[in-house]
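Practice record 12: protein with 6-O-phosphono-beta-D-fructofuranose.
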Amino acid sequence: MRVGVLTGGGDCPGLNAVIRSVTKSLINHGQCEVLGIADGFEGLMEAQPRVKPLYWDEVSGILHMGGTVLGTSNSANPLRDAATLEQVGRNVQTLGLDVVVAIGGDGTMSLAHGLAQVGLQCVGVPKTIDNDIAHCERSFGFDTAVSTVTESLRRIESTANSHHRVMIVETMGRHAGWLALESGIAGAADIILLPEIDYDLQTIIRVCQEREQRQRYTIICIGEGAKESGTSLTVRERIEYSPDPVRLGGVGHVLRERLQPHLKSEVRTTVLGHVQRGGDPTPFDRVLATQFGHHAAQLVLQGSYGRMVTLERGVIGSVAISQVANTQRQVPLQHGLLVMARDIGISLGEAG
Ligand code: F6P
């Protein structure tokens, strides 16, 4: 059996652990040849596909490494036109690929689903620091990103305290606030703003003014997809044809401009950016990624194609990729962490 492995979408700590785990499981089975596909689906879109055999030695010593040894792309779209789609179909045939293990986020799962029409069978493995893939209550990479953001918030706090400033820290997490929420709680943010809850500027002004009288500094942790009530998302750029055509970023600066005129303290913004995606995975993410890779290999060996690895109620399983494509797992408005945050006096920017 010939199995391709690719990583698509934004990179994420733990990808190499999955590549290692799925490859070793398949090699150990004895009947499989594994091919690494370069740069996500892009490696299958050209007349000369970019692939290389993955042997045991290639995937040894990569467990702890951030990024992906296969490379990735979050702009390559094999569904963009009929010619590209046909090219992918031809490459799959020429390479004799029985199935491809596609490690990626919602964009990659949508592509995997769409490519079934040219005979490409996929097994999906969810990855994202955003933790927003349906049927996956914890994606690898998230724990590492939470640690990175939490550490940054701690560093920001000491300088905020010294200068009596309002410090806004912007995190990634496009349409879901899991990263801002968990990091904000762990990093002792005073105000946490999420894509799921449009914020009320007057509430934020009030909280900051009250703190000016007492603690004299305020930490605001804001997800990049958050927005003030009645306004639209802060879009950094749009990329034509990309499965993720809208790139966010900069809402922290927008909030600073809105807030500064109302406060005595100086307001500053730090956009954490890609530092959140980089670095070595935490032990938790290494273990989870290894489990996901192993489970994906079992799906391949059972012939359970068209399915994505899941984690629900602590149990690893699988679901049809079609059920995951084009969906997102946002923070439910009555989630226990939100209830707790409100109860302990963290403002979520809600009016009233
Ligand atoms: O989906 C993962 C993610 O890190 C998002 O949180 C973020 O909006 C996006 O990728 C950034 O992508 P890029 O690397 O293209 O800026």
